[in-house]
Amino acid sequence: MKIRTRFAPSPTGYMHVGNLRTALYAYLLTKSQGGDYILRIEDTDQERYVEGAVDIIYSTLRETGLLWDEGPDIGGKYGPYIQSERRDMYKQYAKKLIEIGGAYYCFCDKERLDSVRAICEASKLPPKYDGYCKGLSADEVKAKIDAGVPYVIRQKMPQSGTTSFDDVVFGTITVENTTLDDNILLKSDGMPTYNFANVIDDHQMNITHIIRGNEYLSSTPKYNLLYEAFGWEIPTYIHCSPVMRDHSHKLSKRDGDASYEDFIKKGYLKDAVINYIALLGWSPQGEREKFTLDELIEAFDVKGISKSPAIFDEAKLAWLNGEYIRDLTPEAFHEMAKAYYKGVVTSPNIDTTKISELLQKRCEKLSDIPEQVDFFDKLPDYELDLFVHKKMKTDAVVSKESLLQMLPVLNGITDWTQEIIHNELMALVEKLGVKNGQLLYPLRVALSGKAFTPGGGVELAAILNKDETLARIGYAIKKIG
Asked: How many CA atoms lie within 13 A of 4 on its CB side?
């Protein structure tokens, strides 16, 4: 049988890390086995619908390369692929389920349901419907429907025994049927609940493998009872543990944790983001950590999915992103960096291609660039304690002497190139009998007003040009006093 997976997001906002990981794992599993990857929009919860969210889903999947074989925009033989467009079908299945004894009409109003909930809370029991309408006769049901009494359709849970299912990650899960609530399948407005619609859609679309978060483990027995009631084949389940912000808190849309778009805006490359998300709860064989999407397809095996929650470590993402940045061609990196120079490096005398050459070796994310290069246009105000560096054996006094020694040497250079600046300063180091850093560290601070810069003093001097370099050294000497 050909494997078929689906990514079925709700259009309720941005694509967050957990959603994107689900989409990625489903894609990798499918493509590693030559199957079909389906995109389905689950918009049954109209109250949470966010305008433009569907477009974000499309653009994120396309940008990351997770291209679908069937979906709302490209069609397929199992469409429509938007749940709200399948509304009539769900009602037919709900009525069929009533006929075969797997569901029933419920006419309880809000006041009665609130009373049932209050009794559960007073008894310190989980909220659960008491099955009041389950005992209505066919004539009573017909009379209420004919009278226009609003109703929902509830799943009829067995009152004894257990329900079990097998999960690829978590093994066999068994629950007591008495713990299962008679959940609503079809709401009073005719729209299905998620619990009902996803079962119908997965069967109708021949989905063979379902990858989703382990928050659905407790609901899966209810889904399986629906499959069994209809006599349908149950798909393979792969539940993934959550992605955590820390050891106590899950990443969450509601808590404002970063979406895919946020990470791109923060200067991360899409390939690095996808690579890192793949490793959140899945381990490839061996020690390798850096993969292209095609390499992830080749390496992916659901046996590598862990039961343990994954901690989202942005420092690790930044490191991996830096590796991707260094793999870019100089031209590609410069094109990306140019957007971050705008409004920060405006002097026509500064060659930003030379800045990019320095940055690419040291940059972890593109959004760091403005802060790293803001001194090229204008020297920021800085404190004298910047000149203190224990390893370089410098302080303000030593730095001033070094700068005074450098000034005539640099002033005497006629061909202002990095190579000549370097050679002249190394000759001065040898003449003075000092360590390189005793000269070059004060030069870095004098030229940038910073202790850390994309390049050293020699590289900065070459980019700033001779007049600006001499002016900044002169300013530093006066500042030290």
From this structure: 19
